[in-house]
Each structure stands twice: as structure tokens, then as C-alpha cells.
Amino acid sequence: MSINRFSHVFVHGATPRLSRDTRLYTQVVLACQRAPYDSALDIYYIPPEEMRAINQQSRGIDKATDVLTFTEQTVEATRMNQLLFADAAAASLERRAEAVDCGSLFICLEYLHTRCVAAPHQNLPFLEYLKVALVHAVLHATGYQHESKEELRAMSKREQFVLARIDALERRFPHVFQKIDGFEFLKKQNNVMRRRR
């Protein structure tokens, strides 16, 4: 699988390793989705205060959350996503060469970590939760929703498929797929906060 074709995936606000790992895992999800090679996606790692403000402004919910995905929701963009990201086995290279703006993802690592620490019996371990949340968000960016039971079933099935592919890549290429490490980022954030006090 050649994943270096997804050159328009950008990660903002992350440490170098977190940025590299996030890009790599995102590119795998896009490849599994048969996304056009020029698909554009911006991923932002943001603090809880910023996530809370975005969540309040966009959804009317006055609290932080783990991940938010914003895509272009025009009728034309929706049709294009349905056409380009269809599960048809024979996705033509011509269609894959077209550029598609998949939107923006916002990830709050502090929220994910706090949630894992507060209720470890109810949540995945932090690094696994980060991987699953990223896959879930990228699937939203490629058109998956879970407004109905059918949509939820389809998205869950696709999530399981993509995560199984990623797990296989992690086992086969452990030197490349070293898990998305959010701890380095959290340590850096804590050091910045201590200096501000």
C-alpha cells in the first residue's frame, strides 16, 4: 500500500513525533477509504479551553470533547464524497486523482487522557483510545455519520475493518507503526503550563 501520496494531510499543534504518527495513521485510513490521493485534511491538536469554545460555537454544548470533525456539507460535496469514497472494489485511478477537501479535525488530548484516567474501567487505554478516536474522526471526514441505527452499524463495521488493518500493519511493521504517542505531547503541554504559572 503506497500511502505517501496523501501529501495534503497536515497536522497542527503537535510534537514532531505525534505529527508524524498522526499523518501516517490518517493516511492509512484514507487509503482504506480509497480516498483520492490529493485529499486535503487538516488535523489540529488543541487545548481543552479551545475545544470547549469550538464545541459551544458549533454544537451549542458548553464543554470540551475528545474529537470534532468539520467537513464541507454542501450537496455537491456530499455527492462527491459518496461517489469517491464508495466501497466499490474497482475505484478508478482517475477518480482517485481528483482533489477533495475532507475538512478539519480537532483533537483534545488532555480531554482523552482525563477521561481515561477518571474511568479506566469504562474506557480504552489512552493510546488505544487516541487511535480509535482518530479513525472515527477521519471516517466522519470521508462521509460516515451515525445519526440513525443503520448509519451507526455501517460506521462501526467500517471502523472495525480499518482498525483491523491498522493492527495488522502495527504487527507487520512495528518499526514504522509505533502507535500514536500522545504522552510526549501531554508532557510538553504540562511543562508549558508550569512555566506560565
From TrEMBL:
One GO biological process term: rRNA processing
SUPFAM superfamilies on file: Metalloproteases ('zincins'), catalytic domain
Sample GO molecular function, one term: endonuclease activity
Keyword Nuclease belongs to the record: yes
Keyword Hydrolase annotated: yes
Pfam families cross-referenced by the UniProt entry: YbeY (PF02130)
Cofactor(s) demanded: Zn(2+)
Keywords from the UniProt entry: Endonuclease, Hydrolase, Metal-binding, Nuclease, Zinc
InterPro entries given in the database record: MetalPrtase_cat_dom_sf_prd, YbeY
Family stated for the protein in its record: Belongs to the endoribonuclease YbeY family.
Name of the molecule in the record: Putative rRNA maturation factor
